[in-house]
Amino acid sequence: MLISKKIEILDSTLREGEQTPGVSFTLDQKLALAKRLDAFGVDFIELGHPAVSPDVYEAVVALNDLDLKAKKMAHGRASKSDINDVAAIGVGWMGIFFGTSPLSLKHKFNVTKSEALDRIETAVKYGKDKGLKLRFTAEDASRTDLEFLIQVGQLVQKEGIDRFSLADTVGCLTPTKMKGLVSRMVSELDIPIHIHCHNDFGMATANALSALEAGAQCVDVAINGLGERCGLPPLAEVVIALTNIYKVNGNWNLGLIPELSELVKAFSKLDSNANQPIVGKNAFTHKAGLHVKAVIKEPRSYEAISPESVQRKRHFVIDKYTGNSALNNKLIHLGISVTPKELDTILIEIKSHPEKLNWDDKDLISLTNSMGIKS
Ligand code: COA
Ligand code: ZN
Question: Which ligand is nearest to the CA of 230?
Fold first, then answer.
């Protein structure tokens, strides 16, 4: 499906990620993240929207001075002032956005479609005259009339835009609808298509992958899925799915995924859910006896992603769900050998304490000692 295609990753942790409620990165944090993202191997790093505030403006200046392999992009409105900011800072790429849905035209700008086309054309022309590489984002593209969206795409392509981005700004598409929309836009335009998905219905990663299947070339992600409201597709989910499911070799340094996630958890003070794929505390932890028994024999029985591939470790929980084999495996690890009868007795004891959420090594050693079983 995607193996031979060129797939690019644009990380927006420093821009959309900072739009997460309660998040404000310091300059040092942004510099640290940009360097690690570059080491990970993203293709684009979105530095920020200079017009937001003086510290964001300064951060874009400082980030732009970094010597990175990744292409640097600044974000801005389809307005001369935002374009002037980016040109003044000297960022090579600018992501210009303009809402194209009926809701945007009416309530954000109070313009007709032709007035919107005029504003977009003027902004793109102005940006190209400034020598910027430009990505145009049709904000709220998923709720834009398709014919108008095609008109917008053809207009900005004519004006020399380098990339065209479709934003599912409220995350309302399904993978099937996404595939239809992106396939159509790919057939209508000659320039690479980017995709910007939101997770309001919990489908951001699936929609992003569907867009790539349909021919999009670049996908916006954020570490730990940060972003407005429910955020963007998490970097880890998209990249591991591309690697493991689509067999795409993106030359990404997958071993950095836990470090990137931990950095953003620390900087944002937002922990990721324990069950978040790949980076969550439980992502490689097995509990029920059947699962543990099978994974001990053949990890792939219940693991489509090997923890080692992302520098993480596998864990087993011992509680009322455990089974003979899982328990015996744990005891052997602790150097405790038991008879089948003793094993049954220990298991009965564990299952008689449903309130105990995990029997750790200490618990098991003291339990077996209390039964006169020496380790
Ligand atoms: N293109 C061109 N002009 C735009 C625009 C766009 N995409 N979005 C808003 N504007 C105009 C507004 O029409 C308004 O113009 P006016 O002063 O002539 O009425 C002006 O920009 C101010 O817009 P407003 O919505 O009031 O923004 P703000 O003054 O609160 O500033 C920012 C907010 C831009 C500084 C920043 O905090 C922000 O919201 N950035 C959003 C980035 C974003 O969400 N991008 C999504 C892309 S997927
Ligand atoms: Zn967004």
Answer: 2
Closest Cα partner for 120 from 145, 103, 133, 139? Answer: 139
Is residue 52 lining ligand 1, measured as CB closer than 6 Å? yes
Distance 80 CA to ligand 2 centre (A): 21
> Ligand 1 centre and the CA of 179: distance in Å?
29
Q: What is the whole-number distance in angstroms between the Cα of residue 374 and the centre of ligand 2? A: 59
3-state secondary structure 31-100: HHHHHHHHHHCCCEEEEECHHHCHHHHHHHHHHHCCCCCCEEEEEEECCHHHHHHHHHHCCCEEEEEEEC
Burial 282-297 (b: 16+ CB within 10 A, else e): ebbbbbebebbbbbbe
Q: Where are the alpha helices (DSSP H) in 251-305?
A: 257-268, 289-297
78 lines ligand 1 (CB under 6 A): yes
pLDDT in tens, the chain (375 residues): 666 688 999 999 999 999 999 999 999 999 999 999 999 999 999 999 999 999 999 999 999 999 999 999 999 999 999 999 999 999 999 999 999 999 999 999 999 999 999 999 999 999 999 999 999 999 999 999 999 999 999 999 999 999 999 999 999 999 999 999 999 999 999 999 999 999 999 999 999 999 999 999 999 999 999 999 999 999 999 999 999 999 999 999 999 999 999 999 999 999 988 999 999 999 999 999 999 999 999 999 999 999 999 999 999 999 999 999 999 999 999 999 999 999 999 999 999 999 999 999 999 999 999 999 977
**In angstroms, what is the span from residue 196 Cα to ligand 2's centroid?**
7
Residue from 79, 81, 156, 169 to probe ligand 1 pocket by mutation (most atoms less than 8 Å from CB): 79
Residues assigned a catalytic role: 291
Domain map of the chain by residue range?
A: 8-268, 285-370
Atom of ligand 1 minimally distant from the CA of 53: 35
CATH superfamily of 8-268: Aldolase class I (3.20.20.70)
For the Cβ of 135 lying below 6 angstroms from any atom of ligand 1, the answer is no
For residues 161 and 191, the answer to whether their CB atoms sit within 8 Å is yes
* 198 Cβ below 6 A of ligand 1: no
